[in-house]
User: What shape does this take?
Amino acid sequence: MIGIKNVGVYVPDTRMDNVGKAIIHNVEKEFIEKKIGISQLAVKSKPQTTSDLCMAAFNHLQEEQADLNKKTIDFLCVCTQNGDFRIPHTSAVLHSKLGLSTRCAVFDISLGCSGYPYSLLIAKNFMEANALKHGLLFTGDPYSSIIDEKDKNTDLIFGDGATATYLTASPLFEIGKGAFLTQGDSYNHLIKERGKRLHMNGRAIFGFVMRNAPGNIDECLKLNLLEKKDIDLFIFHQASRYVVDNLALRLKIDGQKVPFNIQNIGNTVSSTIPILLKQYLTTFNIEKILMSGFGVGLSISSLYIRRSQNEYS
Assistant: This one.
């Protein structure tokens, strides 16, 4: 059974003072610090591409995972909506940079905030269906290159980062069943049109999440024959402090089970969930995790993962 073996993380060292933007956007510093919950934003250098960020995440993964052999990688996938080029797919560029076998399956998944749960399931099922053994799932959505610095709805939210998830048949975490929801007629609430900068209707997205995410999460729990009390940790897409806290309240979940960790990074889109998951891979009293991503699309995906019982055998 294919599952999560390890996660490599890359967040650029450069930080932008988010609180200092209060005057520029005519908002209170407390609004940024407490409601948005982001004091600093991680920002890539201008020359860095999505594949560069992913390579840095892979390098971190390789440093930690001594048995990772590039020669054995037979699956590579990149979840991004901000690739290196319009054509070709960024995963092909990354395949070249990594020097992987020509027999490696390689493709992109065009998803944003809900992308990690979706991508895990796609990767798991694709690999199992084709008897593939060693996979790399990357997330990378550097929004800094598409943000309008005059727009407080996006300029105060998004940071840059990337992750690399190593997928094998001897995982730390097994992948369960997922639940999905799409409200496609609201796609224009988070959109990057040709020739324009990113536009986001934060109020509309917040309403969408509060109306739909609790039910989607409950559906995921039912599919996996679980209840909220069974879950050790809820990893929600790190949209903002306000979104994460209010979703926990709606679900009546103990706040200690719902971490928030983007104070000095920002919302890294498809990378927020795996960046947070990384912190708990070796926290062995955390066995059952429910992750949920929500946003661009508008879409929601929730997924249950559990620590592999093989670790204890």
Summary: The radius of gyration is 18 Å. The domain at 3-168 is CATH 3.40.47.10 (Peroxisomal Thiolase; Chain A, domain 1).
